[in-house]
Amino acid sequence: MPKHLNLSTDGEPIHLYMNYWPLWYGGFINDRRPSLEFRGKWQNPKIVMDDHGSIANAFEPDGTVYRGHSPNHPYSTEGIPITFMEGPRSEFDDACTAMKH
Predict the structure, then answer these.
(1) I need a surface site. Which of 15, 35, 36, 37 has the fewest CB within 10 A?
(2) Strands 13-19, 35-43: parallel, antiparallel or unpaired by DSSP?
(3) What is the pLDDT of residue 88?
(4) Tens-digit pLDDT profile for residues 68-87
(5) Is 42 left (phi over 0), alpha (psi -120 to 50) or beta?
(6) For residue 11, how far is the Cα from the chain centroid?
(7) What does the alpha-carbon distance between residue 32 and residue 38 come to, in Å, rounded to a whole number?
(8) Model pTM score
(9) Rounded Cα gap, residues 23 and 29, in angstroms
(10) Closest to 11 measured CA to CA, from 36, 38, 37, 46
(11) What is the band of 33 on the pLDDT scale with cuts at 50, 70, 90?
C-alpha cells in the first residue's frame, strides 16, 4: 500500500526570524538590531504566533530601535500574540490609515 505525502501544513510549527541587514555594507557590521523572532504554528488559513518578547527587546517605548545596553531597558520575556492572515491590500491600507488617526 503506497504511503501518502501529507500536503497539509495545518498544525505544523513555524519560526520566523528577521534581523537588520543593510544592502550595501551588511557583511561589515556586527549590530543586527532590530532583531525579531516569531514562533507559532499554522492554523489554516492563519499563522498564529508569539514574538517571545522580541518586539519589546528591540524597540524603545517611542518606537525607535533600542541600540544600547541600558539597565533601564528590561529584558522582556512576555510574548505578544500575533496572527498573520491573508487579506486584500485595501484592508491593510485601511487598517494603517485608521491607526494614524
Answers:
(1) 15
(2) antiparallel
(3) 94
(4) 777 776 677 789 999 999 99
(5) beta
(6) 19
(7) 16
(8) 0.70
(9) 11
(10) 46
(11) confident
Which of 29-33, 66-70, 90-94 has the lowest average pLDDT? 29-33
Q: How many CA atoms lie within 13 A of 100 on its CB side?
A: 6
Compute CA distances 49 → 12, 16, 38, 41, whole Å: 12, 9, 6, 6
Distance CA 48, CA 21 (A): 26
As given in the structure block, the three cell numbers for residue 86 are 491573508
CA neighbor of 56 nearest in space, from 30, 76, 73: 76
Cell of 88: 486584500
3-state class percentages of the chain: helix first, strand second, coil last, to nearest 5 = 20, 25, 55
